[in-house]
């Protein structure tokens, strides 16, 4: 993806990680480098100088490359929470604001997957961009580890306060698996069916299914649907053991997360 002054690029790592780069004028910001060599190879081949690393949470597949990148690029600045298990130059948390490559970043705490998970928001080409780590996936959400399901629910509620054209950059390629679960819940949802076809073709061509938009997620993501469930989704949930009321959105959200764990 490109803007008039910035370019976004996803570097593949491990089996399904994406390390996002924001590039401007041969400089780059790196988000969640779980692995270092793929990043340094890409940057060095193109003579791009990294100026910063942003960390969303402490899991190894998001921070594993930080130490090696710091050693290779000693002038780089690492932005992270105090509990992210990296040697941060700048500690950030809810409400932090900083400026990099002509972009103003705002930090939201979007806990749930972990208790100190952060999202980094900025404006490019008049649209909000969210580097959301493992909170939101295309058609899905992160598993609950050191956070709580209530925190994840609140994070999804907060994301919905953003404009519909907001662009999200998740850190994993879980889309096809998530869409299968979404279609299981809403087999009549034509948006999900079309997305499965489109994204299966992207993966067949070895292309990312990401980023995604808030407007699109409201059509295909069961965890957004939990805030305004269709009759079909509620029926499928009840068929699979949901005992709550239709208007108990948190209970439904929690049930869907547990059901996805078993799917």
Give a written overview of the molecule:
This protein is of the alpha/beta class and 263 residues long. The chain is built from ten helices and 14 strands. Strand 7 (97-100) and strand 8 (103-109) form a beta hairpin. The radius of gyration is 18 Å and the shape is globular. The model has no long low-confidence stretch (mean pLDDT 97). Residues 16-172 form the Metallo-beta-lactamase domain. Pfam families: HAGH_C (PF16123), Lactamase_B (PF00753). Its EC number is 3.1.2.6.
Question: What does this entry show, briefly?
Answer:
The protein is an alpha/beta fold and 263 residues long.
The level of helicity is 25-40%
Query: Strand tally, please?
Result: 14
Specify the number of helices: 10
Quote the distance from N terminus to C terminus: 32 Å
Shape: globular
> What are the secondary-structure elements, in order, as H or E?
EEEHEHHEEEEEEEEHEHHEHHHH
Over all CA atoms, what is the radius of gyration? 18 Å
């Amino acid at each position: 993806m490109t803007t008039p002054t910035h370019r976004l690029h996803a570097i593949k790592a491990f089996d399904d990680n994406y390390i996002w780069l924001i590039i401007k004028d041969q400089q780059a910001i790196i988000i969640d480098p779980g692995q270092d060599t793929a990043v340094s190879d890409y940057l060095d081949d193109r003579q791009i100088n990294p100026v910063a690393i942003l960390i969303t949470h402490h899991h190894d597949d998001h921070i594993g490359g930080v130490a090696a990148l710091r050693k290779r690029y000693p002038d780089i600045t690492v932005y992270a929470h105090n509990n992210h298990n990296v040697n941060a130059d700048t500690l950030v948390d809810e409400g932090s604001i900083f400026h990099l490559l002509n972009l103003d970043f705002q930090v939201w705490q979007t806990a749930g997957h972990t208790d100190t998970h952060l999202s980094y928001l900025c404006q490019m080409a008049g649209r909000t961009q969210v580097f959301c780590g493992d909170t939101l996936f295309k058609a899905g959400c992160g598993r609950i580890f050191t956070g709580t399901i209530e925190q994840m629910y609140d994070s999804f509620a907060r994301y919905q306060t953003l404009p519909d054209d907001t662009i999200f950059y998740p850190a994993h390629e879980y889309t096809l698996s998530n869409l299968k679960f979404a279609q299981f819940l809403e087999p009549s949802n034509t948006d999900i069916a079309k997305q499965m076809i489109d994204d299966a073709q992207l993966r067949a061509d070895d292309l990312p299914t990401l980023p995604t938009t808030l407007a699109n997620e409201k059509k295909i993501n069961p965890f957004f649907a939990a805030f305004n469930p269709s009759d079909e989704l509620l029926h499928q949930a009840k068929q699979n053991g949901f005992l709550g009321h239709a208007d108990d959105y948190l209970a439904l959200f929690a049930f869907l997360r547990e059901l996805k764990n078993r799917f």
